[in-house]
TrEMBL record:
TM regions (residue ranges): 26-46, 53-76, 106-123
Name under which the protein is recorded: Biotin transporter
Pfam families associated with the record: BioY
GO molecular function: biotin transmembrane transporter activity
Domain of life (superkingdom): Bacteria
Length: 135
């Protein structure tokens, strides 16, 4: 995720709408891009040792919530500081804007947990060894 962000900031058009470059830093959606790095670390931390379906689902849902929290707060800040926020734009309105994609993201969290659990069945070597000896 860090490489993705750095490639985009370097100017490659990899962000939504084929955007890229340093100007992306002040875009309302950059908070979501930045949050991908934090969410990847957080979800990896949660699932590193406990790879049950319940943990995969919990991690996916918490990761989605963290993505929304960081991204929506950045979006609100960007509209208030760098862009002409629409008349009457409030913090509540920023969160209301995020309601339409939320059901899709919750469903995708379930799909990710199901696929992840199935992948762990197919590739059991991805499971942590129960007899690992610390180095």
């Amino acid at each position: 995720m860090t490489v993705y962000m750095l490639i985009g900031l370097a100017g490659m058009p990899v962000f939504a709408g084929w955007g890229g470059g340093l100007g992306t830093l002040i875009r309302p959606t950059f908070g979501f891009i930045l949050s991908y790095i934090i969410v990847a670390w957080f979800v990896g931390l949660l699932t590193e040792k406990h790879k049950s379906f319940a943990m995969l689902l919990t991690a996916a849902l918490l990761g989605t919530a963290l993505n929304y929290l960081l991204g929506t707060n950045w979006m609100y800040m960007a509209y208030k500081l760098w862009f002409n926020a629409p008349e009457g734009f409030t913090y509540t309105m920023a969160w209301v804007w995020m309601l339409p994609p939320m059901p899709k993201d919750i469903i995708l969290s379930f799909v990710a947990a199901v696929v992840g659990a199935k992948m762990l069945q197919i590739f059991p070597q991805a499971q942590p060894s129960k007899t690992s000896v610390p180095a």
